[in-house]
Design goal:
Blueprint (H helix, E strand, L loop, with lengths): L19 E5 L3 H13 L3 E5 L2 H10 L4 E5 L7 H11 L4 E6 L4 H10 L3 E4 L4 H28 L13 H13 L6 E4 L6 H10 L8 E5 L5 H9 E2 L11 E2 L1 H4 L4 E5 L6 H13 L1 E2 L8 E2 L3 E6 L3 H6 L5 H7 L2 E4 L10 H16 L5 E2 L1 H9 L5 H15 L4 E2 L6 H4 L19 H19 L4 H7 L4 H11 L3
Parallel strand pairs: 1-2, 1-3, 3-4, 4-5, 6-13, 6-14, 7-10, 10-13, 15-16
Antiparallel strand pairs: 8-9, 11-12
Helix pairs in contact: 2-3, 3-4, 13-15, 17-18, 17-19, 18-19
Length: 472
């Protein structure tokens, strides 16, 4: 299927949330002038008549840029900036004063003010400086998100498979990726639900926005709530600064909620509200924030059964199960095992700098016979281990775990009827193996390399069986 890179035009600055600017000045005329000028530029402007009010506002809601007069009767602009930096160290500050002095300028810049203006100032110069600071802040935030995003393998081709079951999954991803519908991924652990979630995001109209992941079963409820919704300073012990939650970070992008079946009843209610109203509040906050996000959830549980047993809310289940995608277990698509194994072999051989270029037939037969309870994740671990242990140019059975070596490859040859009294299968198989090893040696005139070829085995593996069965 096509793996064409689908990319929409980058979002313009107008599509972003307007930057929030807090203007602090004890002169009403100056506050109103700055409000008119900045709102015409499209900014979300908040006003404070003194430093104490400004600090209260900073503690209640996030602010991108602080513009403050320095000389004020109660709390100085420098003290406001100092408090703002404790709340949010990334906040930008522009200091304005009619009484310029080197000492106050140095102190403001030391605290992190990004600029300093003396009254009266040129309005166009102020607008230029504000625009420059806001754009630089947005660019830094986007660079952080981009670095996170680039760390994720998001090419569609990273989901490997040619079986009918996987082709159906590929087709479903192509069909639904460009919609905004919520998706529920189901399947056993290790089947690649995270990769499918990434493929959905990076082939969606939201691909230029962030994708964030949250494992709902990996943390206690209180921490999960803070991670998802964020918190305000002082909301709980240890909340020393305001923090954005992943819902806020993922604005206009995608959030992947892994192991959603592990979510507590209280968190299920809060998530349901987000999906219904597309709004949320930080922990300890009063302001309602927008949640323009696409949700992809995943679980290895039977949520229908969980609903019937009262462990999962029925209304939430129907909210997340808009488009279900079921991922097959690896044992249900055995034809994909060779290409997956070769893929992992190439990956780890390169990482470890080892000249291993293939998997011996007898080793591949063993891989094909294994049941893979851990699915793709287990296969990857097995190949990584084999590459680390292997000393030849091909993976041999000896480098595979005993749990896999203990399963002998199936043959299509007819077998004798099982005796009524039963028999020792393991001893019988060993007798057959020893017989074939001896016959191959006899036919090859005692030349082990030729005997190994007759049995489709590597020389090293053949020599292992000769020693095991003490064949002379």
């Amino acid at each position: 299927m096509s793996t064409t890179d689908i990319r929409e035009p980058a979002a313009t600055s107008a599509e972003r949330r307007p930057a929030r600017i807090l203007v602090v000045d004890d002169e009403r005329s100056m506050r109103e002038l700055l409000a008119i000028v900045l709102r015409r530029e499209g900014y979300d402007v908040r006003l404070a008549e003194n430093g104490r009010t400004a600090i209260d506002m900073l503690e209640r809601e996030p602010v991108d840029l602080l513009i403050s007069d320095i000389q004020m009767p109660d709390v100085s602009g420098v003290d406001v900036l100092r408090a703002a930096k404790k709340i949010d160290q990334d906040i930008l500050g522009i200091m304005i004063t009619a009484f310029a002095s080197t000492e106050t300028a140095v102190e403001a810049m030391r605290l992190g003010a990004c600029d300093y203006l003396s009254k009266p100032f040129d309005v166009d110069l102020l607008k230029m400086k504000v625009r420059e600071k806001v754009e630089n802040r947005q660019l830094r935030q986007e660079n952080v998100l981009l670095k996170r995003t680039l760390g994720i393998a998001h090419q569609f081709s990273n989901i490997i498979g040619r079986s009918e079951a996987m082709l159906a999954v590929f087709k479903m991803i192509e069909t639904v990726a460009r919609t905004n519908s919520t998706i529920l991924l189901t399947g056993e652990s290790g089947t690649g639900k995270g990769l499918v979630a990434q493929a959905v995001h990076f082939h969606s109209l939201r691909r230029d926005k962030p994708m964030v992941s949250l494992n709902c079963g990996a943390m206690p409820e209180t921490l999960l709530e803070s991670e998802m919704f964020g918190h305000m300073r002082g909301a709980f012990t240890g909340a020393d600064a305001n923090k954005k939650g992943l819902l806020e970070v993922a604005e206009k992008g995608t959030i992947f909620l892994d192991e959603i079946g592990e979510m507590s009843a209280a968190m299920q209610v809060k998530l349901l509200r987000v999906l219904q109203e597309r709004r949320f509040r930080r922990v300890g906050g009063l302001e309602e924030l927008q949640a323009d996000i696409r949700v992809v959830a995943a679980t290895n549980q039977n949520l229908t059964k969980a609903v019937a047993e009262g462990r999962f809310r029925e209304d939430l289940y129907y909210r997340i199960n808009v488009i279900p995608i079921a991922l097959p277990a690896l044992r249900e698509r055995r034809e994909d095992i060779p290409i997956l194994a070769e893929h992992f072999l190439a990956k780890y051989a390169e990482q470890m700098g080892k000249p291993i270029h293939g998997i011996a037939k007898i080793a591949m037969d063993l891989l094909l016979q294994h049941e893979w309870p851990g699915n793709i994740r287990e296969l990857e671990n097995v190949i990584e281990r084999a590459v680390a242990l292997e000393a030849t140019p091909a993976i041999l059975p000896e480098s595979l775990p005993t749990s896999i070596r203990g399963v002998e490859p199936r043959f299509d040859a007819p077998v004798d009827s099982l005796p009524d009294s039963g028999f020792d299968l393991e001893a019988h198989v060993k007798q057959i193996e020893r017989g074939f090893i001896a016959q191959a040696l006899q036919r090859a005139g005692g030349v082990q390399v030729r005997a190994a070829e007759l049995l489709g085995m590597s020389f090293r593996s053949f020599r292992y069986y000769v020693k095991k069965y003490n064949v002379r």
